[in-house]
Amino acid sequence: MSDTNKDELIEAQKQVIGILFEVVKRLQANNDLDEEYFQIITVENKTNDNKKRIKEILDERKENSMVVGRLLTSLET
Hints:
mainly alpha; 88% helix; 0% strand
């Protein structure tokens, strides 16, 4: 294998590792958001702040999921 091919392979591996790291980071963030979501949901009397935070959590989870989907799609190419 030539040095150029080795360098290209190493660069590709670095890119894959970077993508997988970001996927794991986003999935972990969603797990943390899930925990916070369930803590808020179990409160009987929800304040406006709680309702606002629930919406923020759902929006953030959706964004993370969309990013993860795009990242995983990029691995297929």
